[in-house]
Specification:
Blueprint (H helix, E strand, L loop, with lengths): L9 E10 L7 H14 L3 E8 L5 E7 L2 H8 L2 H14 E11 L10
Antiparallel strand pairs: 1-3, 1-4, 2-3
Amino acid sequence: MSFTRPEPPYYAVIVSSALDTDHLDGYAAMDERMAELCRAQPGYLGRESKTGDDGRELTVLYYRDAESIAAWKQHPEHLEAQRQGHEQWYADYHIEVAKVERAYGFKRGE
């Protein structure tokens, strides 16, 4: 998914993960529900995600502030998804939270 990044400062939640492909019962529905809820959360700015040939996924979620991230982490349905992720769906994951103070780039042809 592509979106227009906001002007800094903003926060990025960087998630590197691999699913346990033998235990995915219910994952697709929960993933869809989490995406829906996340988009509705105050402070949510957008998401980018790429999956490698090995199935490993790198996702960056963008938020306006740290309070928005903390609120999402404590959302009751998200807490349940986290529990099921630990117990069943993920082989591993790693999360980093960063404050973006400066951002720049270009797109060829623009």
